[in-house]
Amino acid sequence: MGRKANDPLLEAGDDYAKRLEHYAPLERLMVRESDMAGERDGLLKLIKPADVVVALDERGKEPTTMELAGWCRQWMERAAPVALVLGGADGLHPDVKARARTTMALSRLTLPHRMAQMLLLEQLYRAHTILRGEKYHRV
């Protein structure tokens, strides 16, 4: 949702996105902040019929980093596009959650949107370095 200039969290997210692009195709799409119905409409327009949708929600499955790496491996083996959907301040509309194959939590804590985005990108990057046997991840 949205973007404001000179935000350190978004800049960190941009850095992890650039790193991640070396391992997997990545397209970051954002919709304008709105009420939940407006965000729902914007998100559902962006999700394609073939997308495997993962809704980010604090009540979802909370994978370990190693489990997330396993999910990434499965997604790559299926070769289906994956849409990881992060909502705005009020979370995701039930219609967006209904479209999801699974719901994932980054934490049980409530995180600011920009922090959640940065954390998600970092964890996806970390998961891909694990799959490649690279040294970024320390056990």
In short:
It is built from 5 helices and 3 strands, in the order ααβαβαβα.
Folded structure, characterized:
With 139 residues, this protein is an alpha/beta fold. 45% of the residues lie in helices and 13% in strands. It contains five helices and three strands. It has helices spanning 8-20, 36-46, 65-78, 94-99, 113-131, and strands at 52-61, 82-86, 102-104. Strands 2-1-3 form a three-stranded parallel beta sheet. Helix 3 (65-78) links the parallel strand 1 and strand 2 (82-86). Helix 1 packs parallel to helix 5 (113-131) and helix 3 (65-78) crosses helix 5. The longest helix has 19 residues, at 113-131. The protein is globular, with a radius of gyration of 15 Å. The N and C termini lie far apart (33 Å). The mean pLDDT is 92.
Write the layout of secondary structure elements.
Layout: H1 8-20, H2 36-46, E1 52-61, H3 65-78, E2 82-86, H4 94-99, E3 102-104, H5 113-131
Parallel strand pairs: 1-2, 1-3
Helix pairs in contact: 1-5, 3-5
Quote the average pLDDT.
92
Low-confidence stretches: none
State the strand order across the main sheet. 2-1-3
Query: Could you give the order of the helices and strands?
Result: HHEHEHEH
> Beta-strand level of the residues, as a percent range?
5-15%
Oligomerization: single chain
**What overall geometry do the principal axes of the alpha carbons give?**
globular
- The radius of gyration over CA amounts to 15 Å
The percentage helix is: 40-55%
Strand tally: 3
What is the terminal-to-terminal distance? Answer: 33 Å
- Which class do the helix and strand fractions yield? alpha/beta
Largest sheet report: 3 strands, parallel
Total helices: the number is 5
